[in-house]
């Protein structure tokens, strides 16, 4: 080998150079997408969750109703012994004779919740006031004074009843047809029954029974009693939020005391055996949004 050839580096083999170039290009190709994706992620804005208002009251509703309660007879009885003005002692349980609740208007209001398309419930408060008619010969086992015809006996007069009902009700809506939704329902609750008594006894002819008899009601009772109700009717869509509700309602109120009976020789307690009312009612239901 001569001196010129010994000082010069031999050139690299061309196939080797091609292989290195391919490796370099492959590395660049592999790295570019990853870095591009990372850059894209960093460049994307972070979106905060959009505010979605909570829907409150879309299934709640208010209601108000007026009703007509039909006249209804009730059973009454008195307990404890007492002596009437003619000297006869009444020691048996007995009926006062005839007793009835007059027909009257009633009013109610409440609020409720539509659970599903077919099930809803509400809480309602009802108020009604009517006259209580008491009559019959049950107050005395004796005949009226001799000036009256034989067979006449002393009887009562009129009083007043005020009742508040608080009820929890559930309804089954039976589907809507051209805006009309029939339903059935039931409710349970309590009724506060207050008797206002002013009931001097008179004979059936209208003549006073006399100072010796002097029967009078006093101390009208005021108590809470168990009550339940059954309902049926239909509602009509006046607007998307407002419904006209017309239906029938039956309510049963448990027994309780009416008041005290004073006569001559003692005092007896007058009770009713409970009573029921048959009612036609109409009202409006307004859905809240």
From TrEMBL:
Entry keyword Coiled coil: no
InterPro entries according to UniProt: Beta-barrel_OMP, OMP/PagP_B-barrel
Superkingdom in the source lineage: Bacteria
Protein name, UniProt field: Opacity-associated protein
Leader sequence segment: 1-38
Keyword terms: Signal
Residues in Outer membrane protein beta-barrel domain copies: 25-286
């Amino acid at each position: 080998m001569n001196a010129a050839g010994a000082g010069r580096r031999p050139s690299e083999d061309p196939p080797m150079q091609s292989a290195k170039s391919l490796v370099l290009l492959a590395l660049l190709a592999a790295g570019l997408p990853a870095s591009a994706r990372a850059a894209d992620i960093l460049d994307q804005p972070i979106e905060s969750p959009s505010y979605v208002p909570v829907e409150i009251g879309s299934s709640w509703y208010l209601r108000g109703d007026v009703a007509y309660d039909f006249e209804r007879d009730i059973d009454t009885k008195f307990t404890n012994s007492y002596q009437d003005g003619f000297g006869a002692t009444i020691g048996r349980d007995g009926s006062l004779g005839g007793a009835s609740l007059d027909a009257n208007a009633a009013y109610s209001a409440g609020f409720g919740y539509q659970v599903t398309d077919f099930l809803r419930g509400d809480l309602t408060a009802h108020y009604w006031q009517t006259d209580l008619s008491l009559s019959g010969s049950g107050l005395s086992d004796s005949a009226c004074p001799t000036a009256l015809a034989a067979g006449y006996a002393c009887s009562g007069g009129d009083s007043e009843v005020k009742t508040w009902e608080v009820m929890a009700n559930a309804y089954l809506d039976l589907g809507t047809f051209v805006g009309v939704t029939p339903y059935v329902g039931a409710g349970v609750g309590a009724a506060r029954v207050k008797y206002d008594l002013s009931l001097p006894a008179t004979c059936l002819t209208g003549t006073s029974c006399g100072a010796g008899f002097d029967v009078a009601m006093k101390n009208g009772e005021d108590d809470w009693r168990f009550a339940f109700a059954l309902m049926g009717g239909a509602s009509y869509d006046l607007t998307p939020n407002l419904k006209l509700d017309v239906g029938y309602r039956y309510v049963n109120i448990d027994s309780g005391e009416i008041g005290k009976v004073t006569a001559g020789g003692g005092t007896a307690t007058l009770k009713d055996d409970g009573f029921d009312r048959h009612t036609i009612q109409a009202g409006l239901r307004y859905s809240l949004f």
